[in-house]
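// run 5 | inverse folding | seed 20
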């Protein structure tokens, strides 16, 4: 199994998909959007923690800059009804720390706002992930109890940009570039994203 790739990104045209050249061999790697945009911003060689899925008709590689993100991905795909695509969608919409906080707070309302997650899946995630979180690196202690509204702010900002005529993909990309610390309001995100998109 492939657990690590170190090489040069030769194709990053599709958000969430990279081709990494390792000694002349190009590996197709699927990533979460945060990992994708971080990798895209770097030049030179990049190292990715890989999770390999072998199927009869395919060999799929999922890459993560952060080991905790990979550990969370592996925990997510063990949940009944959550496949790799949904796990990547979750990690593209919320940071590992925010997701962990959601589970500890049993915040199913916020989980249902993530792509592809309905009420039943959100409830199942809360139940099944609680024990698994204890085994994740750096997630043994419960995070603070501040409400998680970072994703909501980003979501609102993306919708606002779409209403202004921008494509969802480019709006999400602009928001991800400026939403690092999670302290910005929806208005601040929109203002700064418009500056990026206007360039």
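// decoded
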């Amino acid at each position: 199994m492939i657990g690590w790739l170190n090489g040069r990104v030769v194709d990053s045209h599709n958000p969430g998909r990279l081709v990494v050249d390792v000694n002349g061999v190009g590996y197709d790697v699927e990533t979460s959007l945060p990992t994708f945009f971080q990798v895209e911003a770097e030049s030179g060689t990049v190292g990715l923690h890989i999770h390999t899925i072998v199927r009869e008709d395919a060999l799929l590689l999922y890459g993560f800059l952060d080991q905790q993100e990979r550990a969370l991905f592996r925990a997510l795909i063990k949940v009944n009804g959550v496949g790799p695509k949904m796990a990547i969608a979750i990690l593209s919409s919320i940071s590992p720390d925010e997701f962990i906080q959601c589970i500890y707070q049993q915040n199913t309302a916020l989980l249902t706002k993530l792509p592809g997650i309905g009420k039943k899946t959100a409830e199942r995630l809360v139940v099944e992930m609680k024990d698994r979180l204890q085994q994740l690196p750096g997630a043994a202690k419960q995070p603070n109890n501040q409400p998680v509204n970072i994703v909501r702010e980003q979501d609102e900002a993306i919708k606002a940009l779409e209403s202004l005529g921008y494509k969802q993909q480019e709006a999400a990309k602009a928001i991800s570039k400026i939403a690092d610390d999670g302290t910005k309001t929806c208005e601040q995100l929109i203002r700064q994203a418009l500056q990026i998109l206007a360039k």
